[in-house]
Design a protein that fits this description.
Layout (H helix, E strand, L loop, with lengths): L12 E2 L2 H7 L4 E4 L2 E9 L4 E7 L4 E9 H4 L5 H14 L8 E7 L4 E7 L6 H5 L7 H20 L2 E2 L8 E3 L5 E3 L23 H4 L11 H18 L9 H10 L10 H10 L10 H5 L29 E4 L2 E2 L13 H6 L6 H11 L7 E2 L1
Parallel strand pairs: 2-11, 8-13
Antiparallel strand pairs: 1-3, 2-3, 3-4, 4-5, 5-7, 6-7, 6-12, 9-10
InterPro entries: Atg1-like, Kinase-like_dom_sf, Prot_kinase_dom, Protein_kinase_ATP_BS, Ser/Thr_kinase_AS
Family: Belongs to the protein kinase superfamily.
Protein name: Serine/threonine-protein kinase stk11
Length: 369
């Protein structure tokens, strides 16, 4: 999942201003028409830059991957390609959009050009001195519900919804980000996503009716934890590790602070039901009375992350990158579309049905991004 652009996790961490000052002494890099202005964050597998499209004067976030690093991870490069392919197909006003994929072939570096959110993440807003008011909370949360509803209707689950993956723009846009590129390079033995926001059935195997398991309900749990944190500035179930979190979830009741409106309490209980079969789905959440008086914002009055000014005499290093189309392969970049198709394994309808039956855990098969 596109590792948190501005959040704090093992893959992407926010950088302080001193690191920007160090970079100012070096030549600015310009990849095709994109001028890399400053670093927004970095992690084990990627580095994220604020970039200016010198053709349109629009700002973007550019995520850089070094393919040689991904080659040390099982299926790392092919996983990146699969998730880029999925991102190209996801088009929704509340989901971060992939605008361009660039490959610098001589250094084997890949850049993903993505929407830039100038107010940062919801996590950063929660850590600021002035928390968002109820009207903004409802607007932001309902925007993300729209995004998740779209994903679920297309058989896709997010698996890592949390405040640092919710991005805000001064023009009122709200984006859900982080779609697999980064987190999915974890070891298979690791929990996908952030344990504090993960549904209990995703963290451990406890006695559940298989017919009640539904990956989409895991996203609803994460949304519930996120809403709880936004409302009360705390997590509903805490622990120093996965074991402690699971113990708290499975043995302790959900505590709603005194004085909380009944409609909010009912909503949180419905979203944070330990049993997936009794948990709300996204459409249930969107019908909650909590959202009856929602206000649409065309401007969000949060601090804007201002891009640095570029001096007219700054040194610029021009880098030429190949613009990757939908058939492009990083492993075999010179293949034509026809040649690439020949490398695909063809299975019969019977073989595909057997595979689908084996993999399906619910009445509907969801894709984990």
């Amino acid at each position: 999942m596109l590792s948190d652009f501005y959040g704090k996790d093992p893959f992407i961490h926010q950088l302080d201003s001193s690191s920007f000052e160090e970079e100012e002494e070096k030549p600015m890099k310009k990849v095709n028409q994109y001028l890399l202005l400053q670093t927004l964050g970095e992690g084990s597998f990627a580095k994220v830059f604020l970039a200016l499209d010198t053709h349109t004067q629009k700002y973007y976030a550019m995520k850089r991957f070094k393919l040689r690093d991904l080659q040390h991870i099982d299926a790392g490069v092919s996983q990146l390609e699969r998730e880029i392919s999925a991102m190209r197909k996801i088009v929704h006003p509340n989901i971060i959009h992939l605008h361009d994929v660039l490959h610098v072939e001589d250094s084997d570096i890949v850049y993903l050009v993505i929407d830039y959110a100038d107010c940062g993440s919801l996590q950063q807003i929660l850590e600021s001195p002035i928390p968002p008011n109820d009207s903004i909370i409802k607007y932001v949360f309902y925007s993300i519900l729209n995004a998740v509803s779209y994903l679920h209707s297309h058989g896709i689950v997010h698996q890592d919804i949390k405040p640092s993956n919710i991005l805000l723009c001064s023009d009122g846009n709200v984006y859900l980000s982080d779609f697999g590129v980064g987190h999915s390079f974890q070891s298979a033995a690791m929990v996908v996503g952030s344990p504090g926001y993960q549904a209990p059935e995703a963290l451990c195997d406890f006695d559940l009716d298989p017919d009640t398991l539904n990956p989409a309900k895991e996203d609803v749990w994460s949304l519930g934890v996120t809403l709880y944190q936004v409302l009360f500035n705390d997590l509903p179930f805490k622990g120093e590790n996965v074991y402690e979190i699971v113990q708290n979830v499975t043995h302790n009741p959900l505590i709603i602070p005194e004085g909380t409106d009944e409609e909010i309490a009912d909503l949180l209980h419905g979203m944070l039901n330990v049993m997936p079969g009794g948990r709300m789905d996204v459409e249930d959440v969107m019908r909650s009375p909590f959202f009856d008086d929602i206000v649409i914002f065309s401007h969000l009055n949060f601090d804007v992350i201002k891009p640095p000014k570029v001096s007219s005499d700054v040194k610029i290093e021009n880098i030429t990158a190949r613009v990757c189309d939908t058939h492009y392969s990083f492993a075999r970049p010179n293949l034509t579309a026809e040649e690439l198709i020949k490398t695909i394994t063809i299975v019969t309808p019977v073989e595909f049905q057997e595979f689908a039956t084996e993999k399906s855990q619910t009445h509907k098969t969801y894709v984990n991004l």
